[in-house]
């Protein structure tokens, strides 16, 4: 949504916008998410003439190719890396979703890292072996970053982050590499926009069932096993897990969750938008089991519809969307007994955020902010 509404804001304001991507954009997916067509008055270019389906975390390095090939007044990066670009004269506005190197940094988020590389003594040898490929995939990136990160953040005129949680992570990263401390003074929190906000908030106020819904792509870091374990404790409560399946690894994880789901858990893949709205408007509780969520559009969607999110406290969801325990329930330990207790409490005593809080994440506010920052960068350039 950050990419789409950034392009829309600039195109609607009359800028000549060139969109540079590594892979071909999936416009149908964007239209399904935001409920409108992708802006037609933009130029699309490919950084490379073919798709790369693997090594996703490394593909961001290629996104800068067009910055050198073309002549631009300003560069706005919504996905990729804030590289130090020698000879690049245009100011750069960089939207940081999260410092990727911290994903597996044990000092920053020990529990999440341990989940990605599972201990054989705790999880068994088979699950340990299954976790090795991701660890091998990420290790070269952390090796490169540990040597180059101090040079990565010097060029951007402004860095935008999606939450106070990510801002804290950025400060930690700069401290880890002892560099670029002035970056923080040029960093601003800009919340991602919530698509279809009015449609979501129109679902508030209706009768709800004592059921629990979890929505998100099927990927191992989402920790849907914890939903299954919680559901086994709360046998009288119906749980729903619904999300997108993209690629072989995602399909494998979906099959695993569906295969091990108890009878009170319904697992669905690639559901239509209307069915997602039905789940969000019908269930009292939204359960989010990912640790270290940078922001969390799905919990925000749930909150907008009037559901009560239950989230891990180590997340941008907790700090910026929930405002800690004001609008949600939080859990610190990742054992199903604690989560089950909190889910029951949320069902019996649901919370609801006021409309004014939800409107902080409107696409209109996001687009106004992006335009202001771009205009400030262009003025500063001259």
Walkthrough of the structure:
The protein has helices at 2-12, 27-34, 56-59, 65-69, 110-116, 120-123, 125-148, 164-177, 197-201, 224-233, 247-260, 273-282, 297-305, 316-321, 336-348, 355-358, 363-381, and strands at 17-21, 42-46, 75-77, 92-96, 158-161, 187-189, 209-215, 239-243, 265-269, 283-287, 308-312, 329-331. With 382 residues, it is α/β, with parallel strands linked by helices. The chain has two domains: 2-105 and 147-193 and 362-377, Glycogen Phosphorylase B (Rossmann fold, 3-Layer(aba) Sandwich); 197-360, Glycogen Phosphorylase B (Rossmann fold, 3-Layer(aba) Sandwich), CATH 3.40.50.2000. Helix 1 packs across helix 17. The protein is globular, with a radius of gyration of 21 Å. The model has no long low-confidence stretch (mean pLDDT 87).
The amount of helix comes to 40-55%
Instruction: Kindly estimate the percentage of residues that lie in beta strands according to DSSP.
Output: 5-15%
Largest sheet: 6 strands, parallel
Radius of gyration: 21 Å
**CATH-level-2 architecture of the largest domain:** 3-Layer(aba) Sandwich
Number of helices: 17
């Amino acid at each position: 949504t950050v990419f789409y509404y950034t392009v829309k804001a600039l195109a609607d304001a009359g800028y000549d916008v060139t969109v540079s991507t590594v892979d071909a954009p999936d416009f149908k997916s964007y239209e399904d998410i935001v409920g409108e067509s992708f802006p037609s008055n933009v130029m699309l270019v490919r950084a490379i003439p073919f798709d790369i389906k693997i090594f996703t975390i490394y593909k961001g390095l290629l996104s800068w190719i067009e910055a050198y090939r073309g002549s631009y007044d300003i560069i706005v990066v919504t996905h990729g890396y804030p590289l130090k670009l020698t000879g690049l004269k245009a100011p750069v506005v960089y939207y940081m979703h999260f410092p990727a190197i911290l994903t597996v940094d044990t000092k920053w988020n020990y529990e999440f890292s341990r989940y990605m590389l599972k201990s054989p003594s705790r999880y068994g040898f088979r699950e340990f072996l299954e976790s090795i490929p991701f660890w091998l995939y990420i290790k070269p990136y952390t090796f490169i970053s540990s040597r180059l990160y101090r040079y990565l953040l010097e060029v951007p005129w402004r860095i935008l982050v999606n939450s106070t949680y990510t801002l804290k992570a950025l400060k930690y990263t700069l401290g880890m590499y002892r560099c670029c401390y002035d970056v923080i003074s040029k960093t601003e929190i800009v919340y991602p926009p919530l698509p279809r906000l009015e449609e979501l908030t129109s679902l508030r106020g209706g009768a709800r069932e004592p059921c629990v819904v979890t929505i998100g792509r099927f990927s191992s870091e989402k920790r849907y096993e914890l939903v299954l374990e919680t559901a086994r404790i709360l046998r009288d409560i119906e749980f729903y897990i619904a999300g997108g399946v993209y690629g072989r690894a995602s399909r494998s994880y979906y099959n695993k969750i569906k295969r091990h789901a108890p009878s009170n858990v319904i697992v669905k893949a690639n559901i239509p938008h209307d069915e997602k709205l039905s789940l969000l408007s019908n269930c009292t509780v939204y359960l989010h089991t990912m640790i270290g969520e940078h922001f969390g559009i799905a919990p925000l969607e749930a909150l907008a519809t009037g559901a009560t999110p239950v989230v891990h406290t180590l997340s941008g969801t907790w700090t910026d969307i929930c405002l800690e325990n004001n609008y949600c329930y939080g859990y610190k330990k990742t054992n199903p007994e604690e989560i089950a207790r909190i889910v029951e409490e949320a069902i019996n005593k649901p919370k609801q955020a006021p409309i004014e809080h939800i409107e902080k994440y409107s696409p209109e506010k996001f687009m106004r902010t992006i335009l202001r920052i771009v205009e400030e960068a262009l003025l500063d350039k001259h």
